[in-house]
Amino acid sequence: METVIPNREEITRAKEQSREDAQLRTYTRWINSQLKDGSPPIQINDPIQDLRNGVVLINLLHRLYGIQLPHYHMQPSSKIHALDNVVMAFNMLEQVTSTSYPFLKPANVIDGDVKMMMGMIWTLVLDSGVRKPLAVGGAAASGANTGEQSPRPLNMQSFEQTANAALLNWCQERTKGYEGVNIQNFTESFADGLAFNALLHSYDPSLVEYQMLNPASRDENLRIAFTTAEHRLGIPQLLDVSDLDGQHPIDAHSVITYVSEYVKRFEAPRSEQHRPPSPVPVPAYVAPVEVEPLSFPQPVAPPLPPRQQTQQATMGYDPYAGYQQQTPPPYGYGLTPPVGYYAPPAYHPQPPVHQQAPQGQGVNLYDHRKPKGGIGRRLVEKTYLWGKN
């Protein structure tokens, strides 16, 4: 079977594709780490596609530089709305960065130009993670935030060289004197994991036992550094161990993006550093002690007094019980006499005993109804119940 040997162009293309995939993966994690504490939190899967409508880009600039959010289209439904958002984001970008973007246009973001958008994200990483905390660029960098008229912005090439040199010098100063650490670049110098652990140890010696690390255990050193930085200092893990294992070309942009998070964490003012508390050690298991349950006397309610016996009425329910009938008052012309006038009963300790009035001893009342075929009033005799005092 004939073996096919790839030519130089195919090898170069494969390396470029591997480097681009590593950068996209790192940039996705970096953007998500910046937007996870937003309101509302935003999470993306593809920075090229998710930044095209301008919503993620506006919120990213707001989180990185603290710029007030403009009135943008939160749910753009057309390309015009997306273009408005991108133009707003570019206006925000000109206010805070000291780098010029002569070739980057809003149309590049709308159309999803991979090369131009990767360059824009890379510039944001250097500007917010290196230039801002390390004050790189002097007056050109400081004038962007103070509102004063700043000098001419730096071009992308000179700004990248200045930021990389400043970050490399910062790492060298931090790791000076650590055995086995000699940082000369952002590729092979970080491959064994000792440089990351030395940075952590220089910030807080209690984080890592640097003397116990084995230079030959590259993967283990990387895992210790990534886990400690994330759990103890809140630095997001933007890299995987496989990104530095040597099987694939190490991408310098990805390493710089991750190291810039160390810079922001270490160089931030103490008042702005929110260090997670150290985990509380779990005490050893202690067998529970059996304790006899306490007994308390139960409260006893006092006995109720005996119910008083009441005399039952000899007749059924009477709505006029206890009322004494009186003679209705006189009435004048045109007034209808009331049927009966009742006074409120007197207080009786015991309910009164009722009895029916004798036959023929009722009260004579005039009925206001007219008789059929005549004029006048009928005299009606009715029998009422009399109350007995």
From TrEMBL:
Residues 1-20 are annotated as: Disordered. Gene3D superfamilies: Calponin-like domain. Residues 21-129, 161-267 form the Calponin-homology (CH) domain. Residues 7-20 have a biased composition (Basic and acidic residues). InterPro entries: CH_dom (IPR001715), CH_dom_sf (IPR036872). SUPFAM superfamilies: Calponin-homology domain, CH-domain (SSF47576). This is Calponin domain containing protein. It comes from Acanthamoeba castellanii (strain ATCC 30010 / Neff). The lineage of its organism: Eukaryota, Amoebozoa, Discosea, Longamoebia, Centramoebida.
